[in-house]
Structure formats: structure tokens, C-alpha cells
Design brief:
The chain is α+β, with helices and mostly antiparallel strands and about 260 residues long. The protein is about 50% helix and about 20% strand.
């Protein structure tokens, strides 16, 4: 049984390598001919690779190419180090300006992961920690990321993770979420109005990699009364400026 699993894994890697070295997308028969596999075997394996995001099927035909998941794996270790280094001075400046908790997150396995946190000087702050995971549909920075993912990927995330209700304000209707995501695309600012934790308002903005792919985000969180006193528009302006600065230094080109 172990040998069978190894063989399937080797064939999967063969398919990925064929697609990686191809100058164009390939059909199942072409892939099979290059690695001496029957097309039914290729089709079975490639269906799983597509489901997991490692391969993408072109919309109008039966041809395949590498998916963004491969790129994410290739740059993930670099990103974890690079994005922290790049973001550090901007996060430090932002926490000085706003004096609220600042988070830097990455998008990973249909969730967000907190990879850095800057504490405010306030007595009452956020109960969060680096390394913690959180859902996307009810966090500002999660929604900021969702807004810039392909619609089908968003639907897949929601189908897989669901839309758990954390407070009475949590969005649990997919159509409502998509309406909000459309607005976020225009402003690059997402709001969590006590949707994840009562009494806490959070704003988030996306961070993009040089590939054009959204890979994470930055958020500002604090007690609702303090955030409202500061002015959400002002907070959002400072936040998006930081998101743009970090993305630009990661090689993303704003039009």
C-alpha cells in the first residue's frame, strides 16, 4: 500500500514538472505522452491537483497550467521573512500614529495567520498573538484579502470553512459578503464592526506580491469607542497608505 502511495505522488510531481517546463498550457493527452502515462491516470491526478489549487484548468478548453498554489509554496518561506522585514518600519510608524493594535497577516490554507503584532500603549487592547489563525469572513483583514481573490476561490473557501456566527453582527449570508467585497475593491479598506468580537472594531487592507497576487494584509484593531473617536475614515487612510507602501516594496505595481 505504501508503494502505491509513493507511485501516485511521483506521478503527481511528474505532472507538475511537465507543466512547469511547458511554454504553454497542455491537454491531458499531451501531458500523458510526455511522461508515459495513460490519459485516464493523468485526468484522475490532475483533477485532485486542480481541486487543491496546484493546477488550473483554462476556462474555455480542456488545457491545464500551474496554479497559484505552486507560486505560494515557492515563495512562502521567503515571504514570511521578507514581508516582516519590509513591513517592520511601516507597522512601527502606524502604531505610533494610531496607538492601536496593528497586525500583519498572511493568507494561508483558507485562513489568515497573524505573523506580526504591534501593541498599543493603551491599557485595553487586543487579545491576540502571533501564530494564531482566524477565519476570513468575519475579520477585516480576511475580507480585505477575499475581495481580491477570484470569485470561485472565495466560494470554495466559504464552502470549505463555512460562515460561523461569532456575534450578532457576523455576516453569515454569502450574497451579503459578496456585496461588501465589491465595496472593498474600490476603497481597499475592509471593516469588521464587532463581527468577530463584541466591542472591537477592526479595519484591514490588502498586501500584494510582485506577482499581483494578494498574499496578506495589515489591520488596525481597538475598542469600538476609541476607534470611532479616532475617525474610521482617518484610520483607513493611514492604513491603506501602509498597505500600499509594503506592497510596493514587495514589487507590486499600482496602476
Amino acid at each position: 500500500m505504501a508503494e502505491k502511495h509513493v507511485q501516485t505522488l511521483e506521478r503527481s510531481l511528474d505532472i507538475l514538472e511537465v507543466l512547469a517546463h511547458a511554454d504553454e498550457s497542455l491537454g491531458v493527452t499531451e501531458i500523458g505522452n510526455r511522461i508515459n502515462l495513460h490519459k485516464s491516470t493523468v485526468h484522475r491526478i490532475i483533477s485532485t491537483l486542480c481541486y487543491r489549487g496546484y493546477v488550473e484548468k483554462e476556462r474555455d478548453n480542456d488545457r491545464y497550467r500551474l496554479g497559484f498554489k505552486i507560486m505560494e509554496l515557492g515563495i512562502r518561506c521567503v515571504n514570511d521573512l521578507e514581508i516582516r522585514t519590509v513591513a517592520e518600519p511601516f507597522l512601527n510608524e502606524l502604531v505610533k500614529i494610531l496607538d492601536e493594535t496593528i497586525h500583519l497577516v498572511l493568507f494561508d490554507e483558507k485562513e489568515i495567520v497573524y505573523i506580526d503584532k504591534k501593541e498599543s500603549s493603551q491599557v485595553i487592547g487586543m487579545r491576540s498573538q502571533v501564530g494564531r489563525r482566524a477565519p476570513m469572513h468575519c475579520t477585516a483583514v480576511g475580507k480585505a484579502i477575499l475581495a481580491f481573490l477570484p470569485e470561485e476561490e472565495v466560494k470554495h473557501i466559504i464552502r470549505t470553512k463555512g460562515m460561523q456566527k461569532y456575534t450578532q453582527k457576523t455576516i453569515v449570508v454569502l450574497e451579503t459578503l459578496f456585496e461588501e467585497l465589491e465595496a472593498i475593491k474600490q476603497t481597499k479598506v475592509a471593516h469588521d464592526d464587532e463581527e468577530n468580537e463584541l466591542g472591537i472594531i477592526c479595519l484591514g487592507t490588502p498586501v500584494f506580491h510582485y506577482s499581483g497576487r494578494v498574499i496578506g494584509g495589515v489591520s488596525v484593531s481597538g475598542p469600538a469607542n476609541r476607534m470611532l473617536e479616532k475617525g474610521l475614515d482617518k484610520v483607513g487612510q493611514n492604513l491603506t497608505k501602509v498597505g500600499i507602501e509594503i506592497s510596493t516594496r514587495l514589487g507590486y505595481k499600482y496602476l
